[in-house]
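Q: Mind making up any chain with structure tokens?
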Amino acid sequence: MDCVCQKLAGGRPLDPACLGSIWLFADLGEADRRAMLARAVRRRYDQGATIFRQGAPADRMFLIKAGRVKLSKVSEEGRELTLDLRKGGDFLGEGMLTQEGGEFPLSAVCLEETFTCGFDRPSFEALVLERPGLGLQVIRNLSRRIEWLTARMGDLACSHLEERLYRVLLRMAREHGSSGGQELILPLPFTHEELSFLLGAHRVSVTRALKELRETGRVRQEGGAFIIRAA
């Protein structure tokens, strides 16, 4: 499934700075970006293919160049819960940098034909040893990411579950949906159980909060999509 000729679907060549354009490798010099690209492994996955499975060794990280990926987790009861979606430009597997011998906490399955570009642990560690400045910049970028994640936790900091649910749906619509005037369309078939997992709340409470959002006109459902009022 390796990509050939360093091209994506439609024959478009890979951007020489593709990895340098994401948060983990931001602000790298041109020489470091080109060194990364020379070491990166490019792969193509068919729709429905699994990039990694929950519990597998977390020894790889990837940039999604094109496509869309579902992140899911199997609960203790054996139910699969959708936790997030990732699209072109998003990054997967950065947990590889946090500890050796760790496992992927989720599974990543392609919702459409998907192209990735990334590293395994040995090749990335060798690259950092050769180019220590690259490693220092990655550490700085990881620190910035922690700050960003801390701010994002504000979505879940509200005491009212109705507001927390609205903020999570609004964020996901901005990241994965489309705009329709004063509304955002989120065409994702999330179940109430999956939303409860995202919010850390009981399913019955999420159902009640969603009903309140519908009654106030902030959220409505049409078919398999959420329609979120943005203002």
